[in-house]
C-alpha cells in the first residue's frame, strides 16, 4: 500500500481505506472511470486498496457491484506494477470476504492460477502469509492444468515447491498432508528460495519439533513416504511402504 506522497487521488484512497463508500459514491456515479483508475504510483486501483485492508468490506461490495454492472468484470482482476491483482491482495491479507466475492465473478476459476511478477499465484501467497482459511478455500477453488493445457500448474514445478514448503513452514501440517495425498510428487519439488532451494522433505527434516516423536521426519515423514509413487518390479506404479 502507498503512503500519501505516492497517491494520485487522496479522497478515493482514504475512502477505500476507511470503508467510506458514501463519501465517493457520487464521484463514481458522475465519473465511472474513477472506479478503476490507478490511484497509486505502483498502479493500484481503489479495489486493491479496499481489499488490502481486510476491513473495507462494504466498500468492496459496492465497488464490485458497480464495476460488474458496467460489464467490466475483467477490471476486477487487473494487476498492479508487480502483477498483483485484487485476488492476490485478498490472499496476502486473508480477506475471505473479498476472495469469495471475486471468485463469484470468475466462475471458470482462471484467476486463481494467475501469477504475479515473482511467479506467485494466490495459493502461494496465502500460504506464505499464513492465512490458513484462505489457503484451504483456494485449494478447493484452484484447478490443476488439464492434460491439453500448456504451462506449469499450481501443484508442479517451482510453484508446487513453494506451495508445499510454505504450507509446512506456516505449520499447516494437516493442509500439507491433504496436498501431498492428492499430489504425492510435490514432496520432491524445490521451492524458489534464491539462497538454498529446498523440498518439502528437506524442510521437514529441519523441523523435528513438528513430530510427536520428536525425531526427524518420524511418523509424519513415514506417512509422506507411504504416499510417494514408485515403480514396482512389474513396471507399474505403486506406493512405497515404510
From TrEMBL:
ANK repeats lie at residues 82-108, 118-150. It comes from the Eukaryota. InterPro entries: Ankyrin_rpt (IPR002110), Ankyrin_rpt-contain_sf (IPR036770). Transmembrane segments: none annotated. Pfam families: Ank_2. The keyword Transport does not apply. Keywords: ANK repeat. This is Uncharacterized protein. It comes from Ambrosia artemisiifolia (Common ragweed).
Amino acid at each position: 500500500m502507498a503512503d500519501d506522497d505516492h497517491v494520485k487521488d487522496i479522497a478515493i484512497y482514504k475512502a477505500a481505506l476507511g470503508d467510506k463508500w458514501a463519501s465517493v459514491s457520487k464521484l463514481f456515479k458522475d465519473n465511472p472511470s474513477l472506479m478503476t483508475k490507478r490511484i497509486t504510483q505502483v498502479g493500484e486501483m481503489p479495489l486493491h486498496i479496499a481489499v488490502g485492508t481486510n476491513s473495507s468490506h462494504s466498500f468492496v461490495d459496492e465497488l464490485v457491484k458497480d464495476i460488474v454492472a458496467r460489464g467490466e468484470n475483467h477490471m476486477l482482476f487487473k494487476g498492479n506494477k508487480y502483477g498483483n491483482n485484487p485476488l492476490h491482495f485478498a490472499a496476502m491479507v486473508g480477506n475471505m470476504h473479498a476472495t469469495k466475492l471475486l471468485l463469484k465473478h470468475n466462475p471458470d476459476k482462471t484467476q486463481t492460477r494467475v501469477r504475479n511478477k515473482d511467479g506467485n499465484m494466490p495459493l502461494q501467497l496465502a500460504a506464505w502469509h499464513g492465512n490458513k482459511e484462505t489457503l484451504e478455500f483456494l485449494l478447493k477453488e484452484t484447478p490443476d492444468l488439464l492434460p491439453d493445457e500448456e504451462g506449469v500448474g499450481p501443484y508442479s514445478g517451482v510453484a508446487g515447491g513453494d506451495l508445499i514448503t510454505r504450507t509446512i513452514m506456516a505449520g499447516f501440517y494437516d493442509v500439507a498432508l491433504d496436498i501431498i495425498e492428492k499430489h504425492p510428487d510435490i514432496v520432491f519439488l524445490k521451492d524458489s528460495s534464491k539462497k538454498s532451494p529446498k523440498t518439502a522433505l528437506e524442510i521437514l527434516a529441519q523441523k523435528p519439533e513438528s513430530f510427536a516423536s520428536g525425531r526427524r521426519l518420524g511418523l509424519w515423514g513415514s506417512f509422506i513416504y507411504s504416499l510417494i509413487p514408485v515403480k514396482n518390479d512389474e513396471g507399474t506404479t505403486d506406493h512405497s511402504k515404510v
